[in-house]
Specification:
By secondary structure, this protein is α/β, with parallel strands linked by helices. It is about 35% helix and about 20% strand. It is built from 15 helices and 19 strands. It has helices at about 30-40, 45-50, 85-105, 125-140, 160-190, 195-210, 220-230, 230-235, 280-285, 290-305, 350-365, 380-385, 395-410, 445-450, 490-495, and strands spanning about 1-5, 15-20, 60-65, 75-80, 110, 155-160, 215-220, 245-250, 260-270, 310-320, 330-335, 340-345, 370-375, 390-395, 410-415, 435, 460-465, 470, 485. It has an eight-stranded mixed beta sheet, sandwiched between helices. β5 (about 110), α4 and β6 form a beta-alpha-beta unit. α5 runs antiparallel to α10 (about 290-305), α11 packs parallel to α14 and α13 (about 395-410) packs across α15. The two termini are about 30 Å apart. About 55% of the residues are buried. The structure holds ligand BES and zinc ion (2 copies). One zinc ion (ZN) binds near residues 268 and 351.
Length: about 500
């Protein structure tokens, strides 16, 4: 699907589907919608009289229009209440029209510029949100399916030249962020047989190659990991035939970097639980356990184009969690890269074990801040459900800024406390720490507390548990269907843009 901006009049556009909009409670259409209403002899106004349309967010009404205008059909989409209107409403309203266009088999869609006529949202941001909504809604993991119906063109049509120019810029911005999220979605949706640790290595190398010099990729294989004493990562990898890797990508801006940021992703390409094997249903979607790594790779995919003024390190510990003959046994004690020891009691709590080494390695790069992304705990899903990620951190400012960015990106993140008195639950009788707790309560927090042990005290750190929203079991909203969501890619790109 090509996305374009065009200076023109909606009532003159020839297309399969023409999208106009209305706010909730506005019974007299103005602007572009007003022009179409006039052209169709007041048909849109009449929708209100008949109570067919109220303008609620994402409410739609479609009618044939060929007898009045060059467009075959008109779709009126509700924008919701004017007071609640924001970028997320734009994303959703755009997405709903794309979904409808697909149902109608429309190839050419021309849309009014949502939000451009209303105060508050800059045209460039509005066009960015439209582009994200359109691309993410259009996304389908259809590699293994043969369905041809595609929208060819999505055109944002605007009367004024100045706003059209802004729309063009917004479309470029939106394409970068949506493509990055889609890249992460594809990695998560692909089977574990395709996405092995070595495949994540290939992805990192390719991203570096395509960056034309701004990104480098350093890869540590099993031999190097042994020399580095990355025993925690190696220990989880023991039960699989697939060798583990530590991936380290480095983005450097031109000129002096304002700050050094490390982004760490959990990269378990399949989590069957190890010897503490999961029940079958709990394993069905465990190809998604590398979603944190996919988030980091998605972000890096966009960095070369966005050129932020920060030095950014992307660090992924990649391996499988399998119950092979050499697998880690409950009760084993491992000396992590940091020197701290960990008793491994539950082999299904493997993420925190591999992250112990990857976070410690990130700390050694002396960054100003570390953000990690991990499908870490089922407990987090018990606490917040499937749509909300948890954030925990050692620096309130960092946590707040990430939360603000997530608001703008339309991704839901809620803070949980790193409650120090719970520390006793991760103390082992025979080692410095242990990877499970005696009680099941507070599992997202205790996992966070364990990670904290491996982050330098003087580095601002935020941990995002994406176990819930990284993989959607069902459709979440108009632009997030079942499967990998690319969660936190757009939030982080938003964060890096401020
Ligand atoms: N990868 C899982 C967490 C998970 C669950 C992610 C559901 C996405 C959806 C993690 O490695 C795990 O198995 N955690 C255990 C920890 C427990 C054994 C202490 C869990 O949460 O059940
Ligand atoms: Zn697990
Ligand atoms: Zn896991």
């Amino acid at each position: 699907m090509e996305i374009l901006a065009k200076k023109g009049k909606l009532e003159e556009e020839k297309c399969d589907l023409l999208v106009v909009n209305l706010f909730e409670g506005v019974t007299e259409p103005h602007g572009g919608t007003g022009a179409i209403n006039e052209a169709v002899e007041g048909f849109i106004e009449e929708l209100f009289v008949d109570d067919k349309f109220k303008g609620k967010l994402c409410q739609i009404f479609t009618f044939r229009a060929l007898e009045w205008i060059p467009a075959k059909r008109v779709l009126v989409v509700g924008l919701g209440k004017r007071d609640d209107f924001d970028e997320e409403a734009i994303r959703k309203a755009t997405a709903v029209s794309i979904n409808e266009a697909k149902k109608l088999k429309a190839k050419q869609v021309v849309s009014i510029f949502h939000g451009a006529g209303v105060g508050g949202i800059k045209p460039r941001f509005a066009a960015k949100a439209m582009t994200e909504g359109a691309m993410l809604a259009d996304y389908n993991f259809n590699k293994y399916k043969s369905n041809g119906q595609e929208i060819k063109e999505f055109i944002i049509c605007e009367k004024l030249q100045g706003k059209t120019n802004q729309a063009e810029k917004g479309i470029v911005d939106g394409k970068i962020t949506a493509e990055a999220a889609i890249y992460a979605r594809d990695l998560v949706n692909e089977s574990s047989e395709e996405i092995k640790p070595s495949k994540l290595v290939e992805c990192a190398r390719e991203i570096a190659k395509e960056s034309k010099g701004s990104i480098r990729a350093r890869i540590y294989d099993k031999e190097k990991l042994e020399k580095m004493k990355a025993n925690a990562l190696l220990t989880i990898a023991k039960g699989s035939h697939e060798p583990p890797y530590l991936i380290h990508m480095i983005y450097k801006p031109e000129g002096k970097a304002k700050k050094k940021i490390a982004l760490v992703g959990k990269g378990i390409t399949f989590d069957c639980g190890g010897l503490c094997i999961k029940p079958a249903e709990a394993m069905f979607n465990m190809k998604c356990d590398m979603a944190g790594a996919a988030t980091v790779l998605g972000i890096f995919k966009a960095l070369a184009e966005l050129q932020p003024k920060y030095e950014i390190h992307g660090i992924i510990g990649a391996c499988e969690n399998m119950p092979g003959g050499g697998a880690v046994k409950p009760g084993e004690v491992v000396k992590t890269m940091s020197g701290k020891t960990m008793e491994i009691l539950h082999t299904d709590a493997e993420g925190r074990v591999t992250l112990a080494d990857t976070l410690f390695y990130a700390g050694k790069q002396k960054p100003d801040m570390i953000i990690d992304y991990a499908t870490l705990t089922g407990a987090c899903m018990i606490a917040l459900g499937e749509e909300i990620a948890a954030i925990m951190g050692t620096n309130e400012d960092l946590v707040q800024k990430i939360k603000e960015s997530s608001e703008l990106a339309g991704e839901k993140i809620w803070e949980l406390p790193l409650y120090q008195p719970y520390d006793f639950m991760i103390k082992s009788k025979i080692a410095d720490t242990k990877n499970t707790t005696p009680k099941k309560y507070g599992g997202a927090i205790t996992a966070g507390l364990l990670l904290k042990e491996f982050v330098p005290k003087d580095v601002a750190w935020a941990h995002i548990d994406i176990a819930g929203p990284a993989f959607a079991e069902k459709k979440i909203n108009e632009y997030t269907k079942e499967g990998g969501t690319g969660f936190a890619v757009r939030t982080t790109l938003e964060f890096l843009s401020h």
